[in-house]
Specification:
about 500 residues; alpha+beta; ten-stranded antiparallel β-sheet; three-stranded mixed β-sheet; 17 helices; about 15% strand
């Protein structure tokens, strides 16, 4: 039987230990929790423990809440709404978080400020570290270096009861989307996540109000979202490059990048102008320039084609204004550029196809931009996209290739955890073809497994798992090659150089 007094004491002690509240806030916080739990009295318990995260305490309180009629349904959606409400009582107001962030920049530097803010975002359970820990992660050797692979298991499955209830809810346009600043402190509803434990940091970029926050489901260290205070559509333009470069000037230990602004090659939220950033070295950043080129009038900037499965122009220099100017010149040329011999068409009628995925970082005191050329055309042969994962790799990845994948980190669907486990057992059998054909979960992988078998003389139960993981990385490199507008053959390289010469 759960002792609710003990769990309240544990949760308040946790908040004190993590610096979410001060000792002067203790009684106030206890009473706030009593209000949420509909309790009239409380008896403090003697607790002596240190916890990294509040997950265990919250799970106990949620179980108690359901057993005692405080929680309507015992499903993930309803539990998430309720535990966020609890944690909201234990974190500072937005003005206090913002003041601490900027005071820390002045006294101890911006790195310390982001360290503190990230720690608070985890301690408050806004970043659900217990779920993120479920993700599988490894590196795979490829000709482009070690690619990073994750199987995404952190996002909860859709809740059938919540889906059914949401159908009967009145439509709401507040907040307008998941990125709007109005999410800060929002209680949520069954079809919109609770964000009472969410805090954002305002930041000015190109004299406009923008905001910094962390992703609640981080895919890499300090995975940030930088979003406009205005709910306006994504648009890659010169102002985008200016903002990216200004951001890395202000927070030089972070990279920042933008999804492209067209469907198929863009991100999942095109309706709200935003970037993603963080403190992580992606495989693409480690990739070297393999061909240096020159663009007239920009002798002060190093320009080159990166050895990468996608089509990347890297520009590097000390003057961020000049870098932005050159990036804009390349973008404007690419928007209008066609090369029918390689299937690259800028327009179908009035519909534009060409855009760029840009990434900014600091390197050795210089500013650096990677400009990834994208095209979102479709065809009868490739209805999901010509420069998109083709059908032969859909067993591993069929979703859009957004910013994170472009940089060499595969975010693969959760189904693969189970499927790879099954394949690990079947691939070592003599009748593996027959076994796979009879298994609905993994029959989609049969051609791939045949290919894997042909590459290795001795696949055993001891090495099957590592071989499959390595081969997933090789498939992911093919996924990125499919998304590259210029293929890495002679025709593709010549075509890429033709485009660069056209910029001149």
């Amino acid at each position: 039987m759960i002792d609710i007094n003990k769990e309240i004491t544990r949760l308040v002690n946790y908040a004190l230990d993590k610096g979410l509240i001060e000792k002067e806030d203790k009684i106030f916080s206890i009473n706030a929790l009593l209000e949420v739990l509909e309790l009239d009295e409380y008896k403090e318990c003697e607790i002596n423990e240190k916890l990294e995260y509040p997950t265990e305490i919250l799970e106990n309180i949620l179980d108690w809440a359901y057993e005692n009629g405080r929680l309507k349904e015992n499903t993930v959606t309803y539990r998430d709404l309720f535990d966020t409400k609890l944690m909201a009582k234990l974190i500072p107001r937005p003005s206090e978080v913002i003041k601490k962030f900027y005071d820390t920049i002045e006294k101890e530097g911006v790195e310390k400020a982001t360290d503190n803010y990230y720690a608070m975002s985890k301690a408050s359970n806004y970043i659900r570290t217990d779920r993120i820990a479920k993700n599988e992660h490894w590196y795979s050797k490829t000709e482009y270096g070690d690619l990073e692979i994750t199987i995404n298991l952190s996002k909860p499955e859709k809740d059938p009861k919540a889906i059914a209830a949401a159908k009967n809810m009145p439509q709401s346009s507040y907040p307008k989307c998941l990125l709007c600043v109005e999410n800060e402190g929002y209680a949520g509803r069954i079809n919109h996540p609770a964000r009472q434990n969410h805090r954002v940091i305002p930041i000015t970029l190109t004299n406009e109000p923008w905001n910094l926050q962390y992703s609640p489901y981080v895919y890499y260290n300090e995975h940030s979202i930088i979003f406009s205070s205005s709910h306006r559509p994504m648009k890659i333009e010169k102002g985008s490059f200016d903002r990216l470069l200004e951001f890395v000037e202000k927070i030089p230990h972070y990279f920042i990048g933008s999804n492209a602004d067209l469907p198929i090659v863009g991100g999942s939220i095109l309706s709200h102008d935003h970037f993603q950033g963080g403190r992580h070295v992606f495989p693409m950043e480690k990739a070297q320039i393999e061909t240096f080129v020159e663009i007239e009038g920009y002798d002060d900037i190093e320009i080159g084609i990166v050895k990468w499965p996608m089509s990347v122009i890297r520009i590097n220099g000390y003057n961020k204004e000049r870098l932005s100017e050159l990036a804009d010149k390349i973008l404007r040329n690419w928007r209008e550029y066609s090369d029918k011999s390689l299937g690259i068409l800028a327009y179908s009628g009035d519909e534009p196809h060409n855009t760029i995925t840009p990434i900014a970082r600091r390197r050795d005191g210089k500013f650096e931009l990677d400009l990834v050329l994208r095209n979102n055309r479709t065809s009868d042969e490739h209805p999901l996209g010509i420069f998109h994962p083709h059908s032969e790799v859909h067993n591993i990845k069929k979703e859009n290739i957004g910013l994170i994948e472009v940089m060499g980190l595969a975010v693969l669907p959760g189904r693969l955890k189970h499927e790879l486990k099954v394949l690990e057992e079947l691939i070592v059998k003599e009748n593996y073809i027959e076994e796979i054909e009879q298994n609905d979960d993994v029959v989609k992988h049969l051609e791939w497994i045949k290919e894997v078998k042909s590459k290795y003389d001795n696949i055993t139960s001891e090495n099957a798992r590592e071989i499959l993981k390595e081969e997933v990385g090789i498939v992911f490199s093919k996924v990125l090659e499919h998304a590259g507008v210029y293929k890495r053959d002679e025709k593709g390289i010549e075509g890429f150089l033709r485009f660069i010469h056209s910029v001149n």
